[in-house]
Structures are given as C-alpha cells and as structure tokens.
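Consortium newsletter contribution from the modelling node. Members have asked for a concrete example of what our holo predictions look like. Here is one, prepared for the pyridoxal-5'-phosphate complex that several groups have been discussing at recent meetings.
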Amino acid sequence: MSVSSRLNEIRGQLPAGVTLVAVSKTHPADRVAEAYAAGQRIFGESRPQELKAKAEALPRDIEWHMIGHLQTNKVRMLMPYVACIQSVDSERLLACIDSEAARLDRTVDVLLEIHVAREESKSGWEPGELERYVASGNWRMLHHLRFRGVMGIASHTDDEAVVRRDFEALAAWRERLAPLFGPQFDTLSMGMSHDWPLAVACGATVVRVGSSIFGERDYSK
Ligand SMILES: *Cc1c(COP(=O)(O)O)cnc(C)c1O
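And here is the predicted structure:
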C-alpha cells in the first residue's frame, strides 16, 4: 500500500479533533514528500540532525515535532526548525530550550514527557521529580516556552489493561497540571502505530504514528 492510502486509512479512523503526527524518522525525504502531497503537514522526528536536514529539503509549511530524546547541546541546531518539542524531560532541558528560543526571539511549544511505562529504559520525568519541579514554580520564568501539555509512551505489552492504565495515568497528569499552566495546556500526545486506537479512547488529542504510514524502519541504513 502507498503512503497516501495508509494515511487516508488512518485519517478515516481518527475522530475529529485528534491530530496526527506522522513519524518520519529514518525514512528519506522523498517518502515524507509523498505524505506531504497527500495533505499531511505535521511530522515527527527523533534526531535533531535528521529533522534539520528534512526541514531544509522540504516545504516550509511543514510543522516539525521533536519526539525523541534531546540533548541540550543539540537544542541550538534544532531551534530554527522545530514547532514543538514533545520530549522534554528535565529542568535543565527546559532552561536550555527557553534560552535558545530567546536568542531567536521566538516562542516554542513544549510537552512534558512523563515516564509511565513499566520499562525502565523509557525516558520522561519520573512522577516525583515532576511534582517537585512543578511545585518549585521555576517554569514561570521561562517566557519563551508555551507549555502545551503532556506526552508519553505506554508499556510495550499485549496486555491491554496495562496499556490502558498507562494512558489513563497520562490523561490524569494533563488534567492535574492544566489549572497551573492555563488553558493552552490542552495537548495529550499518546498512542503509536500499535496502540493509538486505545490512546484515542483514553482521550489522546495527538497520536504519533510512524510504521503504519511509512512501513517498518530500517535502522541499519
Ligand atoms: C518512533 C516513535 C513513534 C512512532 O512509532 P511507530 O510504532 O512507528 O508508530 C511514536 N512516538 C515516539 C516517541 C517514537 O519514538
């Protein structure tokens, strides 16, 4: 199946109001261009260098989202190209993104990535750490960030009850933090190729779908 027919199939199943981020990491720019031609405008990438290269090669009206682990020394490279950084998981990274956005005299959307999965390797704020940071009020000084909501990855398991529990935990976080961050804190980014329908059932407003659109990734290339 072509990229456009896969895209249309997913769009046909997504309820109104749920945004599709097409995760194009590892896939070449011409595959992204196929999705663009089919009307897709929001793409997700995991590596700053790759996001930059694609942003420079592809139309300007694409909205690029960073969804992978981000090191502070890569933020400057990313800042001219990125619309939203979904994978923010530390105070240090927030401060760095804010100061790089300030240098370019812009604001940038950020999501707080929260660790809810059982796997230890998954990135994201640990709940206690996030509690302390939010309570510190330090985020109030980051004037070049727009805190838009939360992002997370569910446990990788076939046990639907576990996945549902992870999604519900993310939804609860967004609801709890929204009164602090204000009405723009409206985004709940969760759900990937294998679990997005359940994420949507649990209240996702953004799903991040890669392999169901572009096919399997080949990391050896
Ligand atoms: C790769 C990735 C996705 C997309 O995964 P698929 O299973 O290919 O849909 C979504 N979110 C994050 C954070 C990713 O790294």
